[in-house]
Every structure is written in C-alpha cells, then in structure tokens.
C-alpha cells in the first residue's frame, strides 16, 4: 500500500466485470478464496491462474472473464481485506459512548494483529501488491476510505490540523502498523508471545508519537 493517492496517470487495476447473479457471485468468491490459498503456498512469483482454476473447480476461461491477469486479482484480494478493515474500524469508532482516540487506535492494531496471525493470506496479499507500480497505485486508491476514516478519528487530537495533514498522519500510522506486523509475523521461529510483544510496543510507540504530534 502507499500513503499517497494513486499517482496521476497510473492505472487502477479492477476486475473486468463484477458478478450480478447469485451463482456468478458464488463462483467469483470461490475463485478469490482459491487464489488466497495459492498465494500463501506458492508465493506471488509462482502464482498462476491454472492452479487457481483447479482449486476453485472452474474453467480457466471463467477466471479470465473476471480478471485480466494476476495483478488485477491480487488487487481485488487487497480490496477485500481493506474493506473488511474499514468495516471493523467503523464499528470501533461508532461505539456509544464514543471512545477516545487511543482506544480506537489500540482496538484497530489488535484487530489487524489478530487477522495477520490467524490468516496468512493477509501478509501474502500485502507483499503481492508491492510488486509493480500499478499494484501499488491500486492499493493506494483502495486505502483512501480507511485513511479518511482514521483522519476523522484523529480530529479531537489535532484540532487545528487540516484534514489533509491528518490523512497523511493516518497513512504513517497504518503503514507503520502493517510493517511491524510483517516483521512480527514473518520472523523465523516466532511465537505468539513474540507477536504480542511487538503489538504492545507498536501501541506504545504510536500513542506516544501521536501525543508528541498533538503537542507540537
């Protein structure tokens, strides 16, 4: 992902079409589920539509009806992941009474950590969308709603800071968390305690950083 909007002129990768009928939506979902498994087991360099088609039990032509190439497919996986994160973030921030921003931030970090530990495809997708300028631009476009939401959550902390600046700050937060989760989850012979320690230090570091920004 990128903290900036998609660069001007950079292609945004999307499915060729989205399914409208229930049967087609089920097939589309099955393809994406199979793609996650292939991505985790084979890595992005060895990722092929042939293997996805076998696992999803669909003709390879069906996959090409939806996706021009593997780059568009991993961007759709990233879109799924980001949309789920946005939904969770909204639920954290819309609690009654409204929680303070450190609580929302810590809930957000805990949520991402749980997903990255439980679902190895999260990390695999994150790595895959770093592969080309077009996938990075698409990931940047995908994450805009999430950054806008976090910028709003940070409003009470930084009253006089323009929203555009808070959005940049949100990008720093998100990419710091994801980078540290990548370090924690990908470490050789890591244990749950190791991941918990990194998550705790990430919270401590980012909350302290935001208080520093607020006092600047």
Task: Please describe what this structure looks like.
One of its GO terms (molecular function) is DNA-binding transcription factor activity. Residues 48-67 bind DNA. Pfam families: TetR_C_22, TetR_N. The chain has 216 residues and is mainly α. The chain has a domain at 74-215: Tetracycline Repressor, domain 2. It has helices at 22-42, 49-56, 60-66, 70-93, 101-118, 120-128, 133-142, 144-153, 163-186, 192-215. It is globular, with a radius of gyration of 18 Å.
Short description:
72% of the residues lie in helices and 0% in strands.
Proportion of beta-strand residues: under 5%
Average pLDDT score: 89
List SSEs in N-to-C order: HHHHHHHHHH
Give the beta-strand count: 0
Helical segment count: 10
Give me the CATH superfamily of the domain at 74-215. Tetracycline Repressor, domain 2
Distance between the termini: 28 Å
Q: What would the CATH topology of the domain at 74-215 be?
A: Tetracycline Repressor, domain 2
Residue share in helix: over 70%
Low confidence ranges? 1-7
Structural class: mainly alpha
CATH class of the domain at 74-215: Mainly Alpha
Could you tell me the radius of gyration in angstroms? 18 Å
Using the alpha-carbon principal axes, give the shape.
globular
Largest sheet: none
CATH architecture of the domain at 74-215: Orthogonal Bundle
Region (Disordered): 1-21
GO molecular function, one term: transcription cis-regulatory region binding
DNA-binding region: 48-67
Keywords: DNA-binding
